[in-house]
Every structure is written in structure tokens, then in C-alpha cells.
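Student: Send me a single protein entry containing the residue sequence and its fold in C-alpha cell form, directly below this note:

Tutor:
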Amino acid sequence: MPSPTQAPNHSFYNPDFDINLAEGEMAEQLVSMGLTGRVEVKRDFKARETGRVYVELSCKGRPSGINVTDAEFWFFILSERGSLLELIADGAGIFVSTERLRRLVDDAVAKGRVGEQPYGSHQTTGALVSLADLLGVEHLR
């Protein structure tokens, strides 16, 4: 299994925070169109390969991500190809309430399932939450 600290091996990967921020903000607007309340949207390029999502806990040693969000829901995009609108329309993602995600993150941290993302200008630490736990199933094939 690849280390959570390995850089994604994608020709389109760009660790620049401002590019990722712009993409995230666009996805949040697309997903929020049909919902009331705030939605945090994350795209995990390695989730299908690793069987888990990375939920940010801190950035540069300061609380961030799940620890500071005011979102009511999180949406994880689980594909690496296609436009954001295509991915959302194809159902290549998982919605979860922030309340439930916080419980899953607490469980992952208690079990030592924590990783680091040291690339780019915004190094982060995050919990590694399994897709099976996120979906509420015993295991995935």
C-alpha cells in the first residue's frame, strides 16, 4: 500500500494551494446548488487505490480541515478523471454529515490512522478514514 506521504503520481497533479482552492470552491458551489447548508468538497485522487480518504486535521501545525469547518456536510469525490460536474453527475463521490465524519475521524486517530501530506507550501496532517467506514459497510471488495 502506498505511503500517505508519497506525492500522487499524476501528470495533472499540482500541489499549488491556490489552484486546489479554486477547484474546491467551484466544486462546493456545484454541490451546494441542491442543498441547504454548507458543504465541504474534497477530491481524493488516491481513495480508490488506498481504500481510504484523507481528512485534514492541521496545516502547518495549526487546526484546520475537520477541526475548524463550519460545513454541515462533506462530499468526497473519489475519481481522478473527468470534470467536476461529470464526476458529481456520475455519482463518483460520497456525502457524509460533518457530525458523523468527526466520529469516524476520532476513531481513526485513536487507532493511529494518521498521515502527513508534506508537499507544496501547505503541509498538512490528516486522519485516514476507510471508505468502508465512510459508507457504513463491513468491507469493500
